[in-house]
Amino acid sequence: MALRAATRRLASHLRAAPLSVGAERWIQSTSSNDAQGHPKPTALPKLKDNFLDGTSSTYLEELEERYRSDPSSVDKTWASFFGSLESGVAPEAVAEAFHAFEQGSKVAPLTAASISNQSIQESMRLLLLVRAYQVNGHFMAQLDPLGIDTRPVPVELDPALYGFHDKDLDREFFLGTWNMSGFMHEDRPIRTLREVLRRLQESYCGPIGFEYMHIPDRDRCNWLRERIETHDKEEYSLQRKMHMLDRLAWSEMFENFLANKFTAAKRFGLEGCETLVPGMKAMIDLSADLGTESICIGMPHRGRLNILANVVRKPMQQIFAEFGGMKPQGDSYYGTGDVKYHLGTSYDRPTVSGKRVHLSLMANPSHLEAVDPVVQGKVRAKQHFSNDTTRDKNLGILLHGDGSFSGQGVVYETLGMQQLPEYGVGGTIHIVVNNQVAFTTDPKKSRSSPYCTDVAKAFNCPVFHVNGDDVEAVVRASEMAAEWRSRWKSDVVIDLVCYRKFGHNEIDEPSFTQPLMYQAIRSHKSALSQYIKQLEEEKIATKEQIQEVTDNVQGFLSHHFETAKEYKQDKRDWLSSYWSGYNSPSQLSRIRNTGVPMEFLKEVGNAITTIPEDIEPHRMVKKVYEQRRQMMETGEGIDWGFAEALAFGTLLSEGNHVRITGQDTERGTFSHRHALIHDQKMGHKYIPLAHVFSGQAAGQFTISNSHLSEYGTLGFELGYALENPNSLVLWEAQFGDFANTAQVIFDQFMSSGEAKWLRQNGLTVLLPHGYDGQGPEHSSARLERFLQMVDENPYKLPPVDESKWFTGGHLGGQIQQINWQIANCTTPANYFHLLRRQIHRQFRKPLVVMSPKALLRSPHAKSPLWEFDDKADDKGIQGVRFKRVIMDEGATDRSFDPPKEDSFKRIVFCSGKVYYDLREERKEQGKEKEVAIVRVEQLAPFPFDLVNRELKRYPNADVMWAQEEPMNMGAYFHIAPRLKTCMASCDRSSPHQIPYAGRPNSASTATGYLGTHKEEQQKVVKDAMNLEHTTY
Ligand SMILES: Cc1ncc(C[n+]2csc(CCOP(=O)(O)OP(=O)(O)O)c2C)c(N)n1
Ligand SMILES: [Mg+2]
Asked: Whole-angstrom Cα distance, residue 650 to residue 605?
């Protein structure tokens, strides 16, 4: 009876969802294959006409009657089918199989039921087992070359958990196949358990452990599953194996060679992970075949020389010469230099298939992972400038250490950029050189999760863990990564599990801290010797052939080592491509004007205040734009936001690229920019600066809010600015205080990059700064820190060529020779010229701007339009440029030795917004003829020449510095020795201490009490104006 009921249920299911009528139906044989190996369809006559239409139920019942009286009287597939129904297969499942068959599944719908004694539950449990391998098989993968990793096998990989035992190994099971990928997609849905397990273990537990089941995208998972589960182990040809051998030989023998020749030198060799080189080379070759033309690589110390020599192909002679201590020659300027394992370079490299790919290795500091965002920024810029909209032509590859990848937060910040519209680079390939130790620290103390790569899973990156001793597996993982990046344009991670043959560096003793590991390492055979053995056993190569390969490498290394002694370095490559025509600090550059003809200004001004009719801005934003339009028309009252927009607009019109990013930069933290207008009805966006002139290229002006990162985003912009000098790249901190989370980028790259690596950079950083009573974390951008890193000698006056005073060229190369510029402007017009100056010069220099908050809306901080134009109206001075010093408002003469103003008793030097408070207090006290207030708009390089001019102007005045910041902060300690130098040079007696009006020394940057703030501010200005009593 049970069978009859089941048959009826099946029949009713089939009726409920009838299959299409008229199509000829076939059931595939799983046994007969055609000549090409494809399964051949076999007609199933008994079902052919009427089983699947409405009458089939009667037929099914008839068939069942016959089966019950004599099982051999029906076709054996039907006998098996009824047998499975008797043993519990659900008729609904069979019906479902029929529907799947109808919808395209190639698998016979009755196959599921034809397997003897198998229950649906078993089939489901088997699927769970398969899934467990897909998810967790990597935990059983053979990843550790040293074999000392004793990871417990996860219980879910044990068939017993699913009720399977030894006796089941040779039973056949049905694995559902419809809509599956990987080996379950093959036309062999029936397998023995033994076969299934073997296949799973080969796929997931070999030398590569795949982690991808965390990726929420089905297509991506299927794409990977296909490659993982249908992989044929013997895929490499003899030729490819020999090629891998050759590359591995270069990698290992290079390390040995250096170790022999430079025994006592630190080089952070790759010993223990030499397969990285053949892996990377295969990755690069395949990427080039897939359309990549340029690759930018970032990496730490480990293996850098090897990558330079064998991957990037920096000439060996040069490497040996530099290792021998050779100094650069040629141009007299070669900076302070850096250790050899930090230097970058770039070369064009031919690939195996005959293409060429440009490889550049970025210079980097010791600070692990700091180069990550820099590389990505550079790649993004390359994509911009090569119009690589699909992001196929330019690729970034980042190498990491296991300790740093899991420990350094900037890794997270950088990974987090991959899908951000203005930061994505179409995926970066990450390779973690996982030598299972970080200096002396064990993985157990390095991270809280099983793998050093786990952070990447938060961003849905696939992770390929690979045994670094298996060169073929490394090459396979590397190629898969290249293919993934090309196909999915997202990040992918290779975890190259290897070991470190020596200590942290070659002269370090590793057994102090890792005795057992190093016992294993000492007796461990290198990857090259293992591969040689494998190739001999596989009869791929004879001993002689292998000898030929190694002799060739050895010969080359020896030859180049010998000739390195005569090696002469070519002209530096630092001003390649877009940078040709830019000057090094030893080549004097002309001072250019930054004013813009009035007509042109107006044209730009009109364009950037025009909002199309179909955009309805917020009422307040509309007002901002109307006011800007009015400023343009009247030529009066240009405010900070509009001055900035005019600088951008004019630079864009001149053909430059402008990119400004930061948290909330589109609107502006203080609601002053509104560069991106949101339509209030439809939500459309409109960027006036993207429409300065007709035909403006998309992206020529880029403005974007960033994710909430400083370290990562600043690094990114720094890298972006490295690419092309014709771009003004700006990064804005939300408040200057927060910029210190990006301190590594300021210290290691921005302030010192040119000196170390001879790479110029015009990155401009806007740091809101100013004491407005907003408490300790919204007041100070820590100006003192930026000044402290200025490499100028405070006691040395730059020579002045008086004959060139009015042209601005009187200072020689002062500004070219400094490491960076620090400015704190007080007028919109001066800010405009400062920004334009960044581009209108023949060199590039980083610029840090203390940008205002209160001044954004202050009625005092406004400039007339004529201050932006190109008509010089300052007495004597030719051209209109940024004013490094703004003299007192009562002074007019700008000559080298201006007429004396004898009545003045004090010169108050200051910088930034405190000027307006000082001016107000002076007015209140009526001391306009007694106290001169001089603004130092450019704090570095210090305007010694102009300060001297002011000292000469007021011969009877004492000199004071006024600031809002506490004494141990702000500019005081930067200014004081410089003022003294100036005073001494003007034959003034130089005081022991420079008088000071400002907040007292303080641990915290500012008070949290508004009342106290106001009192303090009052005291500052009163002290400055108090001629009876001098404060210090
Ligand atoms: C930001 C930073 N912190 C600390 C160091 C000091 N340091 C240099 S190498 C190293 C260990 C790095 O370990 P890992 O990332 O595993 O790379 P490995 O040296 O093992 O290749 C440390 C802590 C550094 N260079 N940078
Ligand atoms: Mg390590």
From this structure: 9
